[in-house]
């Protein structure tokens, strides 16, 4: 009499259990992050929060750096989700309005997720390799949103880039057909916006007028990129949600 192999459901149930544990660990680590900052996230503190032994965490994450890396990936994916949800909620936006709306969403998300935002903007923390494949893939997923918006704007004529010396710039592997020009413009503009957002998120620039000032600055950045039109601001909100 032969023994039947275990049904696929057994493995599936085991994987679901593991996935649930990973989510619980990351949720506890994120709570530690919000309370103590990235350098205050410890394996011992996370284990204590979920009633697990510190050694038990190593069944799910190789080390402290792997746990922080997972939080960095989640933070980048969270911002990307906020951007894509805004696009889905406003499918009729022209490229000019889509870009402007995205710039406001980035600021709003950063103000609401200060600690996660600090992980998005290239953290230099012990144990984190900035070139880790998971981090690089998450960064590519995130950047694909503004890059594809710029590429669409160039294609529609809403954005006319100034003549520039051609440079060898890689395209996004996840964005087939996106030009090096779109990539360069998007990265430059996002860098400028991140600078403005960071000065506000981390304190040097404060005050109730910041929302209007940021909106005006975003429009200036758009002019520098080559956007000729004006975004439809009727449905846009400048303040953080």
UniProtKB/TrEMBL annotation:
Region Disordered: start-end pairs: 1-20
Q: Which residues bind DNA?
A: 42-61
Q: Which Gene3D superfamilies match?
A: Tetracycline Repressor, domain 2 (1.10.357.10)
Q: Which residues form the HTH tetR-type domain?
A: 19-79
Q: Which UniProt keywords apply?
A: DNA-binding, Transcription, Transcription regulation
Tell me the domain of life.
Answer: Bacteria
- Protein name, per record: TetR/AcrR family transcriptional regulator
The scientific name of the source species is Fodinibacter luteus
């Amino acid at each position: 009499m032969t023994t039947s192999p275990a049904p696929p459901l057994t493995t599936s149930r085991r994987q679901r259990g593991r996935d649930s544990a990973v989510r619980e660990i990351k949720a506890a680590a994120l709570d530690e992050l919000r309370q103590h900052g990235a350098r205050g996230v410890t394996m011992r503190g996370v284990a204590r929060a979920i009633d697990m032994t510190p050694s038990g965490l190593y069944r799910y994450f190789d080390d402290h750096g792997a746990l922080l890396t997972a939080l960095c990936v989640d933070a980048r994916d969270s911002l990307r989700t906020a951007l894509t949800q805004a696009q889905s909620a406003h499918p009729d936006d022209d490229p000019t309005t889509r870009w402007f709306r995205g710039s406001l969403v980035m600021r709003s998300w950063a103000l609401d997720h200060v600690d996660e935002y600090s992980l998005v903007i290239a953290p230099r923390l012990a144990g984190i390799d900035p070139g880790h494949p998971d981090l690089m893939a998450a960064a590519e997923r995130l950047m694909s949103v503004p890059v594809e918006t710029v590429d669409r704007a160039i294609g529609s004529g809403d954005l006319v880039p100034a003549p520039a010396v051609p440079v060898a710039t890689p395209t996004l592997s996840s964005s087939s057909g996106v030009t090096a020009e779109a990539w360069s413009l998007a990265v430059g503009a996002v860098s400028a916006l991140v600078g403005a957002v960071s000065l506000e998120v981390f304190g040097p620039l404060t005050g109730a007028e910041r929302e209007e000032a940021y909106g005006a600055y975003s429009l200036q950045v758009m002019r520098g990129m080559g956007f000729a039109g004006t975004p439809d601001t009727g449905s846009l909100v400048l303040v953080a949600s």
